[in-house]
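ugh ok so i messed up the first submission bc i forgot one of the chains. this is the corrected input, ALL of the components this time, i swear. 596 residues overall. if the numbers dont match what u have on ur side tell me asap before i send this to the collaborators (the ones from the other lab, u know who)
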Amino acid sequence: MEYKAPLRDMRFVLHELFDASTHCELLGNGLDRELIDGVLEEAARYTGGEIAPLNRNSDEEGVTLENGEVRTPQGFVEAYRQYVDNGWASMTGPTEYGGQGFPQLVACNFHEMLMGASLSFRIYSGLTEGAVLALYKHGSDELKNAYLEKLVSGSWSGTMCLTEPQAGTDLALLRTKAEPQADGSYKVSGSKIFISGGEHDMSENIVHLVLARLPDAAAGVKGISLLLVPKFIAKADGTPGERNALSCGAIEHKMGIKGAATCVMNFDGATGWVVGEPNQGLACMFTMMNDARFQVGLQGLGIAEQAYQGSLAYARERLQSRGLAGAQHPDKVADPIIVHPDVRRMLLTQKTLVEGSRMLAAYCARQLDLEHGHPEPSYRKAASKRAALLIPIVKAFFTDMGQEVASLGVQVYGGHGYIREWGMEQLMRDSRITQLYEGTNGIQALDYIRRKLLGDGGTELSALQADFSEICDQQVDRPALHDMASKVQVRIGEWRELSAEIIAATGRDAQEIGAVSVDFLQYSAYVLLAGLWLQAAARAQDALEQGSGEEGFYQAKLASADFYLRRVLPRASAHREAIQGGAGCLMALPESDFAF
Ligand SMILES: Cc1cc2nc3c(=O)[nH]c(=O)nc-3n(C[C@H](O)[C@H](O)[C@H](O)COP(=O)(O)OP(=O)(O)OC[C@H]3O[C@@H](n4cnc5c(N)ncnc54)[C@H](O)[C@@H]3O)c2cc1C
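and heres the new structure output, hopefully the right one now
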């Protein structure tokens, strides 16, 4: 399936909504609008021209394991070489280790393109950036000097090794061991499952970040350490040296992302080094996981964009039946299906969820940049809280949205959507994993309520709600935007009440936390997108009032905002009602009565 990066919409979000040039100036990274646009155009050429054409074959061919070596699908090795040689791998890496220091606000567009072009291909590099962050923030100088430059350049790749057969969501159950050695290193033993890119032929070396227990470690999550365990131990000159005692025992056969190797990794007394403090592994891993969760959110967005593009092209070409109001194209044997209101409902639902999520991704990316790069510590702290609040929403909402948009894509294609050659069913299969890994979406919702809402008594969420309320206040007196702004303001008031109700209810009954979490996350996301659609409408209205030459583009933004507020936002009401249904009806049924 062809993939064409949505450059015009990306530029709208970057420059017209979030003023990327001023943002870059504040961060002091020397990027201006011309440079940003030039990089994204090149990124669009690379992802559309080199990566997207590999996607379908990678699904058909899959990966193979022979004598412990994983062979990736045809074309992946060459495309990855270009990824490294052309500097795409080092885009966000720290400059002191050879990275280009691009802000997330810009880079997230490239990453969305990669995910849309081929999720399987992106998976091999996706965790390297998180490994760089974790090592950069928590690693010793010795480890950084030996491993960071190669990871930043992409010539070595990174993995995240958490999951074990008995320890998935509950990492307190993990058993992999790390025995200290006289020279300060550790011998790591244990088996990890489901490791993305655990073994492959695309990079020279693979650096595993492994969660394990030291011999004297406390039980539970307080006794977990993070270790760097390379496939080849780095030599003093920075080249790959001795082969470490670890191997890929098997690769999984799975529903989707068939071009991505999902490996059982066996560590048989492999040499490793602790990253950060012993027994503080989970905190260090969270640095990597936060980045990975944001990236997985972008996976949902990228696939959704691809599904929308395919659906739109098909709906314009497929001729079936006449429009309800009479023939729209009498010269043809039938009208294209885009004339039918129900097909339009599907396309506009896809479009507004995708474009709305792109705005939220940029909003979150901006906070991530400010967290790391704002000159003032107080701003860094504020941005860190805001990003932490948003990450579970981005991860869970975008990936649920990706699956919905891909499923709508299958529906738009009718029976052809179910047939492999059209590519839509691949998108639906590929996107399904995003709702599961990096913490299932149920766990994201628990994180959102437990750590992010209840963790500070609702303070940060109130601040977010106040910011969005202000956007409504700014627009409500403009006649063209009055109705939209009023509608969003009502939802924000309702969101505040609902947050207070949840804080009170969870105080009375802890079961309420898990009973309302998914609905509250979804509710919050729909209202956030409504606020962002209002902002988009305001920018579009500004442009039209100033006589912009792109009337069609801005009118489409206004029409899309209107559709979202009338036809998608009402879903929030269903979530609110479900939340108010409470935990009682979930817990009343005795386990023995679930089936007779
Ligand atoms: C293709 C693929 C790639 C992966 N890549 C990696 C990787 O690179 N590195 C890595 O370490 N792992 C990886 N994983 C593992 C993935 O992160 C886990 O599968 C995921 O975290 C869920 O763990 P689990 O499968 O054991 O499910 P479980 O933890 O057994 O969960 C089963 C169900 O119970 C729910 N549940 C569990 N606990 C709770 C709770 N406390 N409250 C409410 N609901 C709960 C879950 O939400 C889920 O619906 C990958 C998995 C796959 C399939």
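quick check: The longest strand covers residues 262-275. that seems consistent at least. Residues 159-163, 168-169, 194-196, 254, 262, 433, 436-440, 442-443, 446, 514 surround flavin-adenine dinucleotide (CB under 6 Å).
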